[in-house]
Amino acid sequence: MSGSYVPLLIIFGVSVLNALFMVTASHILNPRRSTPQKDMPYESGMIPLGDTRERFSVKFYMVAISFIVFDLETIFLVPWAVEMRNLGWAGFMPMLLFVAVLTLGLVYEWKKGGLEWD
Asked: Are 70 and 102 in contact (CB under 8 A)?
């Protein structure tokens, strides 16, 4: 049984060595010449206008978190959809409950205005 993990451990070891080699090579080969152009806050070379620490509205973050939550829903829906016929009603009812809870959450958030950041 432990022999089946040897290829996995070899790949993991090669990956770690490759990562260490890349970090070491970048530090050795990187020329460290500081110029006024490189020290500017923006790499585009444009002179910054105004304050660079502009605050974002909390509503922006609420929309972003909502997107992540509802995007993660697909992680659960896609495998279920692939195996739906094999699962039958025993797999359909829990997924129906899952989608209903997410729909209620979306309706609640919509009614509270959580999807608008203007």
From this structure: yes
Question: What are the sequence ranges of the domains in the chain?
Answer: 2-112
pLDDT digits (tens, 9 = 90+) for 43-71: 565 666 766 677 777 777 778 888 888 88
pLDDT value at position 67?
84
Q: DSSP character for 2?
A: G
Q: Check residue 52 and give its pLDDT.
A: 64
Residue found under tokens 């990187």:
30
Verdict on whether the full-model pTM lies above 0.85? no
Six token digits for residue 63: 């929309």
Q: Which residue from 61, 87, 65 is spatially nearest to 76, judged by alpha carbons? A: 87
- The architecture (CATH level 2) of 2-112 comes to Up-down Bundle (1.20)
Within 8 A by CB and 6+ apart from 102, the residues are 70, 73
SS3 79: helix
